[in-house]
Design brief:
- There is one protein chain.
- The protein is mostly beta strands.
- It has 2 domains: 31 residues; 207 residues, Beta Barrel (Porin).
- The protein is built from 1 helix and 14 strands.
- A hairpin with a 5-residue loop joins β10 and β11.
């Protein structure tokens, strides 16, 4: 009987150490978290822009690019906050001039570009299931019209000097829609196609031929003023960042998940 009691006493004394040792082994054992989509998506597009209304009478179509970032507000990704940055060129002029008046062996290019840039933010509603996933969104933003001239060598991409000839900005109210088509095993990548309508305010800007070079070296500007409505048609790819796959100790189980 004493032997049994002694064995039980030894077991009771050793039990805390055994539990602590087992817990330490569990904590040291690597653990892989489930990997799934995070809240963040980035979209990169090439675009074609069509001026509308008064603007269509002043400038031609343009081409450019747009980058959008989305932050999902719910687990499924139905409602997101979307921010966009983009721009396009709608006109350009290039003048060739000799580096020195006495010879044309070294020539310079004087290049003038007409650009529109924008930034916007607003909500987006997406149907995040199916082979084709449509969405609609609305935003408020700012559109900036800039005409600048740069000087470079005819065989060089380096700008020796540049100046802004004209710049103005206006507000814009934006409505858009499109669709995503997932591809790949992870479905993190999606083809994207969409369109956005900009209801722009009034702005002053220049177009091709609106800068006149005078004999005395000065220039005369012929600015235009109008409302700035336009439509952009966009095609590109979106990428949803995955949640970080991590291996950690058992105590990581007590930490909160992304959702």
């Amino acid at each position: 009987m004493r032997s049994i009691r002694s064995s039980i006493l030894v077991a009771l004394v050793a039990l805390p150490f055994f539990v602590a040792s087992s817990d330490a082994q569990i904590r040291r054992r690597p653990r892989v978290r489930d990997v799934g989509p995070s809240r963040f998506t980035i979209v990169g597009d090439l675009l074609a822009a069509q001026p509308k209304g008064e603007l269509a009478n002043q400038i031609d179509e343009g081409f450019g690019a747009n980058v959008a970032g989305l932050f999902r507000l719910d687990r499924e990704g139905i409602l997101s906050i979307r921010a966009d940055l983009g721009g396009m060129q709608y006109g350009s002029e290039t003048l060739h001039a000799p580096y020195l008046p006495i010879t044309g062996r070294v020539s310079l290019d004087i290049e003038t570009t007409n650009m529109i840039g924008w930034g916007s933010i607003g909500p987006q509603i997406t149907v995040p299931v199916g082979f084709v996933q449509p969405y609609v969104h609305a935003a408020i933003g700012v559109a900036s019209f800039v005409t600048s001239t740069s000087l470079r060598g005819s065989d060089s991409e380096y700008d020796y000097a540049s100046s802004d000839n004209s710049s103005d900005a206006t507000s814009a109210y934006i409505l858009g829609g499109g669709l995503y088509i997932p591809f790949g095993k992870s479905r993190s990548f999606k083809l994207h196609a969409g369109g956005r309508y900009f209801r722009g305010g009034e702005a002053t800007y220049l177009n091709e031929g609106d800068i006149q070079d005078n004999p005395d070296g000065s220039v005369t500007l012929f600015p235009r003023t109008s409302k700035t409505d336009m439509v952009t048609w966009q095609l590109g790819v979106s990428y949803t960042f995955p949640r970080t796959s991590s291996r950690g100790r058992g105590r990581d189980r007590d930490r909160g998940r992304d959702w």
